[in-house]
Amino acid sequence: MDLRRWQQDIIDGLPDILKAHRRFIIKAPTGAGKTVLASQIISQFYEGKKVIVLCHRLVLLEQLERALGREHRVQKLNLTKNEKPFTDYEVLLSTSTRAKDILDDAIKQADLLIIDEAHRVSPNGTGYKRILDCFNEHGKDDAHMIGLTASPERRTADQRDQLSLAFDAIIDGADMNQLFDDGILVRPRYRPHFIHDLDLGHIDVSCGDFPVAKLAPAIIKSSMISHACDIYLEERKNVVPKPVSAWFCPDVTVAETTVEAIQELDISVELITAQTPIKERMAMLKAHEDGEVEAIVSVGVLAEGWDNPHCNIIVHMRPTLSKVLWGQSVGRGLRAAPNKDSCVVIDVSSNWSTFGPVEQLQWSLWSHRGSYMKFKNRFEWIAQQPVDEQKSYFLCDQKQPSGLRCSHVYLKNKFEDGGCPVCGSLSAIDIHKEQKMDSSVNDIGLHRLFFERIPAIYGEMNHSIWRTLGQTAWTGSEKPELIFLAFCKAFALVSGEPSHTDSEFWKLTLDGEAAVRKFLVENRLQIVKAEEMNHAILVDGLMHGRKIRALQANHGILLCGELFEGLDADMLERKYQRALQIIERLAVMGCSSQDNLPYFKAKDIIG
Known about the structure:
With 607 residues, this protein is an alpha/beta fold.
């Protein structure tokens, strides 16, 4: 079998990967060929050995059975199957909840465990926790666990439910730009719009995302569906050979309203939900793939495991705090097909301006509450882009004959007269400028301030005085001062050694966080968790401002400054980046004598 470049690269490097990691994720975009890679790994490294392939949904299981069955002796585990595993086959397929006793027995014998859609693995959930525990405690010493996913991240603040507790590393497989160049995927062409009358500010997102029960009424009340239909009518004229679209909605009420609006445009459309019978669903998808149905509107069932390569328009109608959901949905339209040169991504949910283009998404095995709370700002990605004196992102403010604002988000030269690419209007808001004005400090400014102020102030202060007053600084600190001091303590304690993988970075960072938590618990200091980390606190301490008093500011600067004399610039930079991660986690998670985390248990310190 001829492999794609990225697949061959993984195969060539797999012996070294297997030596370095027992449990790892191979990351590759939707449509890159992860199932083919899995088949080749089995053929070239596990021929005649015992392999388990798991996924979380029956539909995906059937797809895997068809794909892997061409090259291997495969058996799908049935709920009623009582025989011993691997009797007359080498590859066992199952969901994470089927025939638990047989699956447990299989894991003890298996040489390889492959988990498809591995971002679904919940180390603290009812399904995968038992499997992970069985693999770790009873699996063969030389067995490996490989996860496959396009989006290796879980959106959760629960530190017992992190992907890093299941996998040791992320192995980058296919780069999306490489797949674009190779013609395996087509490039997305984004059409982002901001819906002015969609009010999300009042919705509580403490559960980790916009609750559907609150989100759906807000969408129905707004002009989102009207915007989506108007934009779709424009874009469907520009795709070849003909428009084939997938619409992603948050719930059935939004989906049904969307279907009605599409029908009024005299466009063929079908609605698929989790309640759609499987045979009916398959018939609808077949009609969609054959071009008999132009638009498929879905609720929570097509973001994973479904692929129609002819789909050339994605309409995203679900605002979310999950870049996993955003990336998975857009990926459904990027598979290459004859005469298909791109995929139009109509985003009326502000996910493009929140997370950025899917080909630029960054992933991590660890997350915390602040890692998704920041996405409440629906221009978060735009706000984080470096300041460019020539170009900026604008929001078209022109009112259309329909009564709706154009609301297109676009990049343009600040000093040229060109207007909105959609409507031509010059009436627009400079989003980048507005975001920078609203932000008290950005990462670039804080970084510059830290590396300028610390050595300058440290060089002028009386070190012995501020060192002697250290205990007083901690015990007498107010909430903001404790955050500043904890950041400085994190900088002092965290390792500055280089890391070469995501898992190495987080291992060193969490070791540093544990050391800071140990110090705080030993000294009976408590950080009360907050909604988000306010970086202005750190600026205030570095600048001797109003919130951080001189005692706390100078002691914190002393803790950091002592390291500037003995470490090189690269070590200091690595310590700074890790300390920033630590204080963000401490601020949004808090710290107390009740801490019970996988990497730090306060009871072990208290005794």
